Amino acid sequence: MPEATKSITVAFVLASYTHNAPAGMERAIAALAHGLRQLGHRALIITAVKPDPTKDELDEDLIVLGSAEVTFPAADNELREAISSHGQDEIIAADLRALYHRHHVDIAVYVDALWGLGRLAPACPAVRTVLAMHVVGHDQDLTPALERADVVVAPSTTVLDQAHDRGYDSTCWQIVPNALLDDHGAPDARQREALRLGGPMRVLARLGPEKNVRALLDAGHLVDRGIEVVLAEAGFEHAVGAQAAEYRRCAHSTTHLLMGSIRDGGLPWNEVQPWLADAAVVIVPSTKETFGLIALEAMSVGTPVVAFDVDNLPALIDTGAKAGGIVVPRAHGEFGLWGAAEALLDDPVRYAVLSRAAYYRSRDYLPTTVAHDFLKAVR
Fold first, then answer.
1. What domains can you pick out in the chain, each with its CATH number?
2. Does position 58 have pLDDT exceeding 90, yes or no?
3. DSSP string of 45-76?
4. Are the C-beta atoms of 59 and 76 separated by less than 8 Å?
5. d(CA 330, CA 173)
6. Which of 131, 217, 312, 350 could bond to 149 as cystine, CB 3.0-4.6 Å?
7. Cα 117 vs. chain centroid, distance in angstroms?
8. How would residue 69 be classed by pLDDT, with cut points 50, 70 and 90?
9. What is the reported pTM?
């Protein structure tokens, strides 16, 4: 186990990782890697996605695992087949061992049992194995991944509770929350008030059914405020073509809004917080959210959040007097989200209080803070 004061090398394994990917796991890992580097450690990211030389900058700490041959976006079963058929799992494990040896890796973090290749995690002398469970995976992946892990970390108690409900013993798992990748400045009080009066309501999400964007748009046809939606495809999906189909449905729903716009392609990571900062309110309509990174990023720039009371969102957003937004009972439906947002924008005093509280709550999730939490959990 590395000494507490020694500079170490941490390798994060995530098959779908690409810079600017519109997914929480990728952005959270990039933020944690950034925090570790700020503390003087080396952080590598091992991916199965080949960088595009015309778009991606050369990054010596981004390593492509060539033996994990899969075309992205991919569904779970496609990736599972690609890494387990014809002895490919043994080839990938050997390549990982070689990479760890070459780069003197101290800690290997498998970011998910399947997509982070945790089910293949090879035993390596002097390398500590960490399984980072952002979601509770399929049993066929999770069972072998847990057998191989020295430490299990999760971003919230929601994951621990869900694992327990599935019959896994999560009592010794550690909580390491997601971190903010950037620390973009928040609008001042005058700018924030101007946004309350005339800024748009904004939604930023990955194209997954659990993000629930289409139902939100269907319920927003009477909202007389500008609504702006940005969606994007991630490197993983539930079934082939599911994300493209979801975008078409959302685009159709947007045509019924009084003042609505939608676009796909997502946002580069360095534009996420500035875009959220220029919103009057950010709505997170998810029905499943094991952490809630978009909500945190909105709060970090002083934009109040409106979300359902599902999974980790209440703990992240609402702590009574220090709430950074409004949590709506799921039973109130998507009309309840719109109603809460409109009521908040009509209340300048409450709006200002929530905006300030949102910003200060987010300070607990800076990269170096989370990196300290991570090192305490895994050493």
1. 9-176 (3.40.50.2000), 189-364 (3.40.50.2000)
2. no
3. EEESSPP-TTTSPP-TTEEE-TTS---SSEEH
4. no
5. 28
6. 131
7. 18
8. confident
9. 0.94
